Amino acid sequence: MSIEDVLDAREKTHGDFREVAKISQTIKAFYARKSMPLHQREALDMIASKLARIVSGDNNEMDHWIDLSGYATLVVSKRLPQSALQPASPPQPQEQLEALEERLSDVSANVSHLRGSQFVR
């Protein structure tokens, strides 16, 4: 099986890679500046990717749903080493203000985009 065959098969279950990336990165932008332990951030990153695949690809592909629940379970069960549980440094007030302004700008852009999409009627 060639790499092209693998990519074609994955596109059927996972969706178009560019669309998945766009959706996944949009989700990640909502929590990008939030201070949290690294294992929670990684789990959210993976969940964002799985959600993007569900929306873009075959939503009946059970592996997406199983993976999504697995990452959430890892956080809940704390099966990770203690070093992974250390939170990142909290942002400083000026950084928080800048992050909120950026987030507001992103949300405004997303709302404008959604107003023209098939999802908003």
Key phrases:
mainly alpha; 5 helices; single chain; 121 residues
Count up the helices: 5
Spatial shape: globular
Extract low-pLDDT stretches.
none
Order of helices and strands: HHHHH
The N- and C-terminal alpha carbons lie at a distance of 44 Å
The value of Rg in angstroms is 17 Å
Largest sheet: none
Helix content: 55-70%
Class from secondary-structure proportions: mainly alpha
Question: What do the pLDDT scores average to?
Answer: 82
Number of domains: 1
Strand content: under 5%
Counting DSSP E segments of at least 2 residues, the number of strands comes to: 0
Please tell me about this protein's structure:
Helices cover about 70% and strands about 0% of the residues. The protein has one domain (about 5-90). By secondary structure, the chain is an all-alpha fold. It contains five helices and no strands. The protein has helices at about 5-15, 15-30, 40-55, 60-75, 95-115. The protein starts with a helix and ends in a 6-residue tail after the last helix.
